[in-house]
Amino acid sequence: MEGASSPGMATRSSSTAPPLLLLLTLSILLTSPVHANAGVPAATKPLADHLALAASFREAPAFRNGRGCAPQSDPAAAIHIAMTVDTTYLRGSVAGVLSVLQHASCPENIVFHFLASSPRRLRPIVAATFPYLSFRMYRFDAALVRGKISSSVRRALDQPLNYARIYLADLLPRDVVRIIYFDSDLIVVDDVAKLWAIDLGPHVLGAPEYCHANFTAYFTDRFWLDPAFAGVFEGRGRRPPCYFNTGVMVIDLERWRQGGYTGRLEGWMRVQKRRARIYELGSLPPFLLVFAGAVRPVEHRWNQHGLGGDNLEGLCRDLHPGAVSLLHWSGKGKPWLRLDARRPCPLDSLWAPYDLFRRHGSDDLFANS
């Protein structure tokens, strides 16, 4: 049972809903005649909407642990992954989850933590699509970032849920001490246990870094001309600060909590909102301001990002040179939208096999999300 939660508090759901009961209820609702002038009880319509949305996805197969996997009951064997879910990106999230499970050596030891603005609506969809998945769902209260978000170059970057990754340490239970964060527009094509096993050392956060990128471009002239701002990176580490993409991160939640990093990120958001416009790219720059130069580098293979093009046009792009463990459609162009429009980029065909969306008769469910 879910109830209202205060800002910063989580409403948690486990994946124990019997899929057979859910499917029987769905069958009754979808096959019963509905007349235009029929009075539909207010309490029934939301349930029907939820089940209709759930029916728009095929059920994923069950994935079982291979030989040598630790028992599922062993907490030390769990791999914790966090993602956000909403109706706009749900199709991408579902594909991402399926890709993780399909390539994992011990899929039953993976626990997903979903952050959602409407968990009551989305939990049944996840449970019906992945009946065997271990997951918890938490309510992200948009009030946490109210008054802290400033407009950016793309509207999608301004949505409150895009900032939920800042609050993982506050929303997740204290017994979760380490987390992998994944964006909802990526697929994993390698065993996620390899990413989980990365030694963070003394670092709070690990991610692929891209030191060839023009780091100065992520901040405005106003930022670089003010020594009080520009000096924030001095003395942070042995290396100069580098760009990293926040769509793939390994985070030590214990160190995060001890260091008060949520407050540090919020502090830069307040500077941007109230004092000076120092960046243009949503939730990314605060992470760069707090962590750049102090990130545990991860192999580039774990974030082949930018496949969605830039933030304005979303043009097709090629893979970066090197091995690939994760494909990330960061940028404006999303594979499911381009495939539906019959204008796919070549690499979108790599995403398509993980798409569980039912195309016949239900495509309009996402049209106005």
Automatic annotation (TrEMBL):
Enzyme Commission no: 2.4.1.-
GO function terms (MF aspect): glycosyltransferase activity
Cellular component aspect of the GO annotation: Golgi apparatus
Pfam families, A to Z: Glyco_transf_8 (PF01501)
Signal peptide boundaries: 1-36
Annotated metabolic or biological route of this protein: Glycan metabolism; pectin biosynthesis
Membrane topology: Single-pass type II membrane protein
Subcellular location: Endomembrane system
Keyword flag Transcription: no
Keyword Isomerase among record annotations: no
Entry superkingdom: Eukaryota
InterPro entries, sorted: Glyco_trans_8 (IPR002495), Glycosyltrans_8_dom-fam (IPR050748), Nucleotide-diphossugar_trans (IPR029044)
Keyword terms, alphabetized: Glycoprotein, Glycosyltransferase, Membrane, Signal, Signal-anchor, Transferase, Transmembrane, Transmembrane helix
Family the UniProt entry places it in: Belongs to the glycosyltransferase 8 family.
The protein, known as: Hexosyltransferase
Biological classification of the source: Eukaryota, Viridiplantae, Streptophyta, Embryophyta, Tracheophyta
